[in-house]
Amino acid sequence: MSKKVLIINGHPNKESLCFALAGAYKEGAVRSGAEVRELIIADLQFNPNLQYGYRKRIDWEPDLVAAWESIQWADHLVWVHPVWWGGLPAITKGFIDRVFLPGYAFKYREGSVWWDKLLKGKTAHIITTLDQPGIYYRLAFGRPSVNQLRRSVLQFCGITPVKVSYIGIIKTADEDRRKQWINKVIEMGIGLK
Fold first, then answer.
1. Where are the beta strands (DSSP E) in 17-161?
2. Which residues contact 144 (CB under 8 A, 6 or more apart)?
3. Of all helices (H) and strands (E), which one includes residue 124?
4. What is the rounded CA–CA span in Å between residue 30 and residue 149?
5. CATH of 4-191, one of 3.20.110.10, 3.40.50.720, 1.10.10.10, 3.40.50.360
6. What is the pLDDT of residues 62-76, one digit of tens each?
């Protein structure tokens, strides 16, 4: 049985390296025999603002309904996004706010501080681009985007393990370096890492 992979692209610019990396992972995953779906957050029609928090439910727009169906379908989620100001792009954060909701991705237990993780059995890989070395992002800044997505969202909802790959330094990379990164990500897709 082939692995079901959902590639979630969180970069709003289709000419970005993130789009090339997402395409490279897809190429590798298809070569490995996986079934692959793509979700480009910037193409979705939805309000990224969780206007009432968790106190009042806002109905999902059709694109969010379809996105959730793909998340449920997948065995392995691949998140591709840049790090901006230490965090996720606003549209990606808004997508998470609107989709990873109580009753869907996790469930609070009545009268308890504990919760049920409703996305157990899935794995994930975060591929993130940086304008600094990944080790510097981790040591100097504490890698806030990774902590948020990996620990506070994916693992909180039961998705584990969550692998992280840093691609960078983007701003100083020449075409040869970018090709090396693309080939590296193709190999990740082939190995589904």
1. 35-40, 76-82, 106-108, 115-117, 123-129
2. 86, 87
3. strand 123-129
4. 25
5. 3.40.50.360
6. 999 999 999 999 999
Q: What's the length of the chain?
A: 193
pLDDT at 122 over 90: yes
- Taking the chain, what is the end-to-end CA distance rounded to the nearest angstrom? 17
Q: Please provide the DSSP assignment of 14-44 as one string.
A: TTSHHHHHHHHHHHHHHHTT-EEEEEEGGG-
Whole-angstrom Cα distance, residue 170 to residue 48? 27
Q: Which two tokens stand for residue 122?
A: 């899935």
Residue 181: what pLDDT? 97
Half-sphere exposure of 9 (CA within 13 A, CB side): 23
Give dist(CA 157, CA 182) in Å, integer: 30
**Angle (nearest 5°) at CA 176 between 174 and 28:** 120
Q: Is the pLDDT of residue 133 over 90?
A: no
Does the structure show a pLDDT above 70 at 22? yes
Show me where the domains of the chain are located: 4-191
**What is the rounded CA–CA span in Å between residue 161 and residue 91?**
25
pTM of model > 0.70: yes
The sheet with strand 123-129 has its strands ordered as: 35-40, 4-9, 76-82, 123-129, 162-167
**pLDDT of 186 strictly over 70:** yes
Tokens of 96: 């998470």
